[in-house]
């Protein structure tokens, strides 16, 4: 019975998409309006969908048991929620590099946090503004369309206190984080490159014009970020179970958490099987790298 219902809905979706394409051929403006309206509604569905608890393996750290997903890519929503249940904060975030349907701060925005969203993609920024406005969540959210480099981010974050700082730019992540003054930041979340393994502190060279080519050549290893943030008075406290993001806490609050080792808490990417992972890793490690 339920299978038949799903098949009917699938056929309806196919028919609707076909009609939408045909409308676009003859009435492009109407097509764009309808598409935007659909995207806005889908955004609200994502925003208010039910919490999804994620299964974690036996090799996970204790903090991974708190993972859940609402609007984050993986279980980051749950880790963020757990961290800020243990420390005082003023509901201030700053996220660099986001997807309008999935990002680390979207659930915070829904829960009345304020802050900044920064991305180099103009269309992405415009859509996020429209979607937040449609959902009545645009107040106290500043969206900045800018390509981030080692030269331009400090001038913004130096002026504000930040509870949660998230960075995911698929490129010069290490060098941008190294350039920042993080004295007024409490928690950092950044994507590490799992294909660099857990033994070496390694990063790609800095390239002002770097563009990610979907070849997994980006960023830095978990060990590189851990060493960098330790020098900036931050400790590693979480690595999400998908092997994507790592979380670091200002040492002022580190006594409230278990401090992790990048070698022991490192996780490979959950999006690839072992053979696929090793194949990608061999290609990535053959490219130009800097060992720190």
Q: What does this protein structure show overall?
A:
With 292 residues, the protein is of the alpha/beta class. It folds into 2 domains: 2-37; 48-291, Vaccinia Virus protein VP39 (Rossmann fold, 3-Layer(aba) Sandwich), CATH 3.40.50. Helix content is 38%, strand content 17%. It has helices at 2-26, 28-47, 76-86, 106-110, 122-134, 154-157, 173-179, 222-231, 262-265, 274-284, and strands spanning 52-53, 68-69, 92-96, 114-119, 141-145, 162-167, 185-191, 202-203, 234-239, 245-250, 290-291. The strands form 3 sheets. The protein has a 7-stranded mixed beta sheet, with helices on both faces. A two-stranded antiparallel sheet has the order 1-2. Helix 4 links the parallel strand 3 and strand 4 (114-119). The termini are far apart. 36% of the residues are buried.
Strand content: 15-25%
- What's the arrangement of strands in the largest beta sheet? 5-4-3-6-7-10-9
Bulk shape? globular
- The CATH homologous superfamily of the largest domain corresponds to Vaccinia Virus protein VP39
Number of domain units = 2
CATH architecture of the largest domain: 3-Layer(aba) Sandwich
What's the helix count? Answer: 10
Contiguous low-pLDDT stretches (5 residues minimum) are 1-9
Mean pLDDT: 89
Secondary-structure element series: HHEEHEHEHEHEHEEHEEHHE
What is the CATH domain class of the largest domain?
Alpha Beta
Q: Tell me the CATH topology of the largest domain.
A: Rossmann fold
